[in-house]
Design goal:
Elements (H helix, E strand, L loop, with lengths): L3 E6 L6 H10 L3 E6 L10 E4 L20 H10 L4 E4 L1 H8 L6 E3 L7 E9 L15 E8 L3 E3 L2 H9 L3 E5 L10 E5 L5 E4 L16 H13 L2
Parallel strand pairs: 1-2, 1-3, 3-4, 4-11
Antiparallel strand pairs: 5-8, 6-7, 6-9, 9-10, 10-11
């Protein structure tokens, strides 16, 4: 059975086509879901892509969090459905309190557009299931507010519960504990700042994005 991935489009999103192409290249079907929709339709997983939802007014993700579609995303996640937020999508998930913590301006107040070295820190999320802990990946980042932060209690919980999914090797943005991605307690909601959809071909410098997106498709099959 072919997996169907819903890609949520907010005004200002700019990575929805990249995400769709990446999943279609792995054999999945995709459907773009408008932020004003109140239903996700019959999707097997949901991705909130990168970009600048609502122009990042107020702060990134703060307005998108109130889009009608987010009620459906929250219900889907509560039922165990896989939800992944990439870059701006990660910011939206923290604003919606589907993930803990927040994303603040990068250390040095510098916009970063470069390839980052990552290490898989946990295999208990839908994007790392079956991927050995310690696996090294090279995946691009493209953000100004990707510096993950949280209080000490939250950090202790993330560490103890294996919810730090990815860590930077050579922290580029100042994120606490080198965090590049986290998941919720059930492992079905994941946010990450790196863009796996941009690491799908050697022509783009890396195919390591296939590891994460392929794991998501595998998690859908075995759900």
């Amino acid at each position: 059975m072919t997996q169907r991935i819903g890609v949520v489009l907010f005004p200002g999103s700019n990575c929805e086509h990249d995400v769709a192409e990446a999943f279609e290249g792995l054999g999945a079907e995709t459907e773009v879901v408008w932020h004003g929709d109140r239903s996700l339709g019959s999707v097997d997983a949901v991705v909130l892509p990168g970009g600048f939802a609502h122009g990042d007014y107020l702060r990134p993700g703060a307005i998108a969090r109130f889009s009608p579609v987010m009620a459906a995303v929250e219900s889907f996640a509560a039922a165990g459905g896989p939800v992944v937020g990439i870059c701006n999508g990660f910011q939206v998930l923290t604003e919606a309190h589907l993930l803990p913590g927040a994303l603040q301006k990068n250390r040095g107040l510098t916009f970063l557009c470069q390839t980052a070295d990552l290490e898989v820190a946990s295999d208990r999320s839908v994007i790392t299931a079956g991927v050995p802990v310690g696996t090294r990946l090279r995946i691009p980042i493209n953000h100004f507010e990707g510096n993950y932060t949280c209080d000490q209690r939250t950090l202790d919980e993330l560490r103890a519960e294996g919810r730090v999914v990815l860590r930077y090797v050579g922290n580029p943005n100042g994120s606490i504990d080198d965090i590049a991605g986290v998941c919720n307690g059930a492992g079905n909601v994941v946010g990450l700042m790196p863009h796996p959809e941009r690491a799908m071909s050697e022509l783009l410098g890396s195919t390591d994005g296939r590891v994460l997106l392929g794991a998501l498709l595998g998690a859908v099959v075995h759900a």
